[in-house]
Design brief:
Blueprint: H1 16-47, H2 64-93, E1 100-107, E2 110-114, E3 120-122, E4 124-128, E5 132-139, E6 144-148, E7 153-157, E8 163-168, E9 173-179, E10 192-197, H3 199-208, H4 215-225, H5 228-231, E11 250-252, E12 258-260, H6 263-271, H7 294-306
Parallel strand pairs: 1-5, 4-10
Antiparallel strand pairs: 1-2, 2-3, 5-8, 6-7, 6-9, 9-10, 11-12
Helix pairs in contact: 1-2, 4-7, 6-7
The structure holds dinuclear copper ion.
Dinuclear copper ion (CUA) binds near residues 106, 181, 182, 187 and 190.
Amino acid sequence: MKPSFPLLPERASAIAGEVDALFLFITLVTVVFTVGILAALVFFAIKYRRRSDADRPEEIHGSLALELTWTLIPLGIVMVMFVWGAKVYFHMNRPPDDAMTVSVVGKRWMWKLQHPTGQREINELHVPKGRAVKLVITSEDVIHSFFVPAFRIKKDAVPGRYNVTWFRATKTGTYHLFCAEYCGTEHSKMIGKVVVLEPEEYQTWLAGGPPAESPVVAGEKLFTELNCITCHRADSAGRGPVLQGLFGRTVKLASGDTVVADEAYVRESIVIPAAKVVAGYQPVMPTFQGQVTEEQLMALVAYIQSLQVPSETRAEPERR
Ligand code: CUA
């Protein structure tokens, strides 16, 4: 068994080791400098203490070499922290393409989660070991924060926004889930657990629950019920843009800007259609703010994400 630093929680995700190594490095640098500066302080206080009333210190006119040394060495060290930190940050924020998407909605005071196959959970998340899990996180009231210490992930759940993070669990077991942003009276009770299962056990778990409707199917039904389908037709004869093959592509806007059609863009276009109007279209779409819940919005986004154009006509989607 590898020795573990007992002050840290268990490491149960692929990124945990990277986070801990960086954290250890920063801690070591901090300790070395704190001890060094303190030692120098004590040493100089004794060495240059006032010895008599007539004591006059020697005048010193500065030293370029010294100035450069104490500027460049710390600069080098903090640049190491910056580059290393940025690398880990990007790793944490870019889910792999094959990740399964779990939607997370924070609400005072519970976590509502939904699997890509439709199963819903509250304050509990079952995931397979070894599989990348992408979390699309939002809130339906105030700011919460989704925190799983054993996975070293923490991401705010912000109303009106989709925040994304991901993890790959490396060990089966049960791990704490916390809300890490004060959100009112029962903030401290907004806790839960993440259960990591072997892939076969996860399949059994999925099959064991009541039959579920996947977000894509639920989204398709909503798309029809809300009459989205009358304007967003597949044959480009509608009043709204064609949605087939949209997801992940770069879209030209009437303002001349471009935007990548990701979860956040699709969500905004449903809630505030006038915010980013596609070039060549009129801002005629009504808002659906207040008419659909966060979970329904996520279902609509999942449905639009699932819409692909037939392969022969399909343009290569641009990478994000
Ligand atoms: Cu939700 Cu604190």
